[in-house]
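Ticket #4471: structure export looks truncated?
Reporter: QA, pipeline team
Priority: medium

Steps to reproduce: submit the single chain below to the structure queue and open the exported record.
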Amino acid sequence: MMLSRRNNTALMVLKLDAAIPAKLLQDLESHKPPIRRVLPVTLPPLAI
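Actual output as written to the record:
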């Protein structure tokens, strides 16, 4: 997990081993106080 803050905006990055369930994504977006944006990103496997 990584946290960053600039003025009144905070950024949280979570690394997950699986795709985020749709219900959890919906719950995060409807959170109060509001979480303005939830962006799931899938990265390719690390090539060694």
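Status: closed, not a bug. The export was complete when the record was re-opened. Leaving a note from the reviewer for reference: The CA atoms of residues 20 and 40 lie 7 Å apart.
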